Amino acid sequence: RSRARNMLRPTHELARRCEAQAHTPLRAHHRDNEHRRMDPAPPTRKKASQWWHRLKGEDLITLQPLRTLRLEPFELRPDDTHKTYFNAMTLSQYLIASKNFHHPSSRRPITRDDCTKLSEHLARVHKNKKQGDALLTAYDERMEELRLQALPRTAQNAILASELQRSIYGLGTPAPDAAVEAEASGARGGGRGRRRGDGGRGDGRRGDGGRG
């Protein structure tokens, strides 16, 4: 019997070694899974791109927290050192309706370059190029109004009269220019006067000849 036990002992040892080797990969696999559960998941590309969700503060027009905006906000600086962000669609609607092209907080004049950047933002983020075009049109019209207001009253009246004539004669037909007509009439009248004066001088010369 002792001899039989000695013969079976290597067999049992070999079985235990094989069993240990068979379970070793499984244990390593379980350890790897535990480490994966403990490690935080890497941020997705979509979450990483929504940088404004980390912003503090509010939209100065709607008072909506910037971090809750669905789309990327538009940056409009109040001065050279600070940053403020707005819902681009709301900002464009406010500027078009009010025709007040000044920064809502600092009253800094908004330039056409600012409006161009806002228009590009609307086309890229909001997919609304039409709104951007309307913003640029409103800005140009407002700047033209301010330019006319700075002119003397007589110049303003002349421009208004010209626009009224264009509306009467039709948009496609150029209206007569009253200033040009008056200048032409004056030139014709002056020519006739000069000719009469020349004739008079001729009579005078004949008279001088007669005295001689």
Folded structure, characterized:
With 212 residues, the protein is mainly alpha-helical. The protein has a domain of 121 residues. The chain is built from 7 helices and 2 strands. A two-stranded antiparallel ribbon has the order 1-2. Helix 3 packs parallel to helix 5 and helix 4 packs antiparallel against helix 5. The longest helix has 37 residues. About 13% of the residues have low confidence.
What's the quick description here?
It is built from 7 helices and 2 strands. It has 212 residues and is mostly helical. Residues 22-49, 172-212 are annotated as: Disordered.
List keywords for this structure.
two-stranded antiparallel sheet; single chain; mainly alpha; 7 helices; 2 strands; 66% helix; 212 residues
What's the helical proportion of residues? 55-70%
Count the beta strands. 2
Structural class: mainly alpha
Strand content: under 5%
Oligomer class: single chain
The backbone outline, from C-alpha atoms, is elongated
Helix count, DSSP H or I runs of 4 or more residues: 7
Q: Element order, helices and strands?
A: HHEEHHHHH
Query: What is the spatial order of strands in the main beta sheet?
Result: 1-2
Largest sheet: 2 strands, antiparallel
Beginning-to-end CA distance, first to last residue: 180 Å
What secondary-structure arrangement, pairings included, does this model have?
Layout: H1 2-38, H2 45-49, E1 74-75, E2 85-86, H3 88-98, H4 112-125, H5 129-149, H6 153-169, H7 178-211
Antiparallel strand pairs: 1-2
Helix pairs in contact: 3-5, 4-5
